Amino acid sequence: MQKQNKDQKEQLKNKITALFDLLSELYGTERLLLKAGKLDILDILESEEIEDQLIALQKIVFDHPMLDKVPEEFSKRLELVNELEDNLVENLSKKLVKENLEKKINKKLELRHQEYIKEIKEEIIKEESQEDTVDNPANLKKYIELESLEEKGLNVSATNLLRPQSLEEIVGQERGIKALLAKLVSPYPQHIIIHGPPGVGKTTAARLVLNMAKKMKETPFHTDSKFVEVDATTLRWDPREVTNPLLGSVHDPIYQGAKGKLAQEGIPEPKLGLVTKAHGGVLFIDEIGELDPILQNKLLKVLEDKRVNFDSSYYDPDDENVPQYIRKLFKDGAPADFILIGATTRSPQDLNPALRSRTTSIFFEPLTKDDIIKIVNQAVSKLDIKVSDGVAELISQYTIQGREAVNILMDAYNLSLYYKKDKISIEEVLEAVKLSRLVAINKKEASHESQVGRVLGLGVSGFLGSVLEVEAIAFPANKEGKGNLRFNQTAGSMTQDSIFNAASVIRKVTGKDIKDYDIHINIVGGGQVDGPSAGTAISVAIISALQDIPVRQDMAITGEISLHGKVKPVGGVIEKTYGAYQSGVKEVLIPVDNKVSLNNMKIKVSQVTDIHEVLDKMLDG
């Protein structure tokens, strides 16, 4: 029993000694003695008695001078020691945290102090060199205004929401997209010109195909390859090369835009253009046919060299003050290895021959009524809105552009919100097209009833085909051989040549001389015919009028007529066929020499050789 008490006493004494060590670490020796003096415990602090030491400990730890008693029982004393230990550990941990925080604060203050000293030095240097401070209060105010504008963006755009996110969402361009994939997703991608009407997805398709190509190992594109887009109609450049956003330019020190320090030292600075930004990726030029011819030739030179070279009479290669990057640009030029994709609404023959020879052509087709309906329904699904039956069909009657169809839908949707309706009705669509002053474009020129002296010809403007109504009426002349021939002059000189050719063919086929008749020929609507493609239609119209034989009105014809009655090939057959389909025509007659792929057409296409074959098909009687 006596031994047990001795062990307990020794254990308690060791703990008390450890606690005094913690106190010394927490306060330090001098502060500990000072605190003991204030609590009037210096005499018992040096005592060897456990009771005195516990009294001193609890007074110091709890900072209370009236704690003069301690428990008699060992267990109670042990609890007191543990409580004192917990309190000391907590205070010590707080001290460590505080010290670490103070160290960090002091370090930050020292760093800020150094930065502040540095800023003061820079400011003094600028003042001594009589240079204006870049970030003066006025400039900082403008910067803050810009930052506040950035935070106030609407972040809402129907165009971004409805833009196709995959190639499958692009409607009506399966053949064009397949050709684009074949030429771009390849180990050796080609420069491409995409021909097609506006609003059919040329830009979107090019961007999505590049995204696909970046994921393919066999292509030279990388994951960070850029798609740099520019509109050729907005590119402005100076022949003196002072400014050229496409290829890059040199800011000579005497011109506006040169940096102050470089200008003072007389060092010209090259400015990189879009061709360098597109390095390793795709440069997409919309409306490339509108690009300045001289700039086109310069662009072709860059395509060959895969590099842009800079020159300036102010550049001195021996000047030691020339920065290294400027020296490299003048010596080696800037890299510009990219794939060019141009988009245009022009026909290939209307483009620069040099540009055509260095690129391959891809054709995007005009959208049909069914395509427009599909695009509208796709937009309705993305917007998650309700529409009445017939809305998509009605919109398809007013446009053949996917972008415009979506705009009409959005106008109608906004009107429905204005009228507090839960879905878009026919009335909102009609009001939307009325406000936009749109007229129906898909007129049904075709019909099932045959008609004398009226033939449906086909014309094309750009990539948009249309039906031309060719009318003819004939009366016996008052005097034999004194007949008159009239036609609208606005149709163009080629129409006159076609009529003269038709006159010879008519005499050969019918045996009648048109000089014995007064004949009036009219191209309805005053449409201008630039080529000879209406020759066959004019011949059929005159023959129908002379012989009083009706012509089928669900059939259209295109083709030049020769003096021997042969139907010669013409251009724009695919576009003309689309136009015929839009107008409700059931069958199209084209020259046999127009060997074009029309397998995907939703209309019957027949090839004819001569006027006799045409008359057999078109005359109803």
TrEMBL record:
The keyword Zinc does not apply. Its EC number is 3.4.21.53. Keywords: Hydrolase, Protease, Serine protease. It catalyses: Hydrolysis of proteins in presence of ATP. GO terms for molecular function: ATP binding; ATP hydrolysis activity; ATP-dependent peptidase activity; serine-type endopeptidase activity. InterPro entries: AAA+_ATPase, ATPase_AAA_core, Lon_proteolytic, Lon_Prtase, P-loop_NTPase, Ribosomal_Su5_D2-typ_SF, Ribsml_uS5_D2-typ_fold_subgr, Sigma_54_int. The active site is at 533, 576. GO terms for biological process: protein catabolic process; proteolysis; regulation of DNA-templated transcription. It comes from the Bacteria. Residues 449-621 form the Lon proteolytic domain. Residues 181-402 form the Sigma-54 factor interaction domain. NCBIfam families: spore_lon_C. Belongs to the peptidase S16 family. This is endopeptidase La.
